[in-house]
Amino acid sequence: MTDGLAFGSGDGSRDAVNRALGTGESLPGTGGFAGLIDGHLVRDVLGRVPLFVDGVAMDGSSIDGHVARTSLSRGRTIATDRRSATVDAADWSRRPTALDDPIPVPSGTVDLEPRWTLPEPAPVDDRGRIVNQLDQAITDATRRQATGAVGVAFSGGLDSALLAAHLDAPLYTVGFPDSHDVEAAQAAAEALGRRDDLTVIELSIDDVERAVPIVARAIGRTNAMDVAIATSLYLVADAAASDGAESLVIGQGADELFGGYEKIHRLDHRVESDTKREAVRELLASIPEQLSRDVLAVEAGGVRPVTPYLHDDVVATALRLPAALYGTETTRKRALRHVAREYLPESIADRRKKAFQYGSLVSRELDRLARQAGYKRRMDDHVRRYVESRL
């Protein structure tokens, strides 16, 4: 932390932020940043560090200029007029629990006003060259950020295995005994010759029950999807922290950057875009909301999150990928798979895997807990109602 700034994955500097303020450069070579610098409240273009302002203060006199709050389908954001908004030091925090009425600060803003947007570079035609550049960017970001007592959240899939291949660090996976993630992680660790590095934490429903109120308070959300994802991450982080880890490497951002979602390839009703490259940029806009949840969940587990795929240098390279390297509906993330084949067996590099909350079966058991507590599926938002009953 520097002068009220926090840096994503612990990688950044005051000079980099000042450069970004002066030039408008949105990817100045950090892992993200947020906080106060020279009296200005800033949050990077991808919102990689959680940042909130207090809605109670927003309705008072702590903000210069008119401020309006806008309700959104999955949260709230801030809209200001063109005059500069000044936020008192007591009216912002990186944790929602520190504020009476926490509202996320929009990504890419300075004093709540838009400042940075992602660049729109032309795609690189030379596929071999851009894949090599991506390989170098991922390698450098992983090794530079993952230092000291570090663990890797390892699900056995492409994203986490590629990061693990660059690090001599313990691997952690959580899941119920019959879960896909436990089986996949064990098979992948065996294929990598890393079976002794893998710690498997077999969960019970009591583990999920214990975690739910901790996670919901930490992330400031109670809906089923967010709580299930955050609970899975929290339980991995908690296990790593218990072993003495100070940071946890996670593969967040890979699906958004490299074409991992089916809807990118189908271009169906789930996206507004007409091309794959436009769809990727559309999904990148969801990262601030998702990553705020994930970072807060990992920190609640007692470790610092490290997100190599979301380092500025990796993002800048990924934005130059041609559409063909996003792959197809059946073979997604083609560029990342090309990189991975240099380090991983084909059985891992070509594997498709379930989402974390489903692969670990945490989502299933969270639903079970809600029903056991009397919140039946026929009720609207039955899991959310259960979670809120625990707070």
UniProtKB/TrEMBL annotation:
Residues in Asparagine synthetase domain copies: 134-270
Domain of life: Archaea
Protein name (record): Asparagine synthase C-terminal domain-containing protein
GO MF term list: ATP binding
Keywords: ATP-binding, Nucleotide-binding
Keyword Metal-binding: no
Lineage: Archaea, Methanobacteriati, Methanobacteriota, Stenosarchaea group, Halobacteria
Positions of the UniProt region annotated as Disordered: 95-115
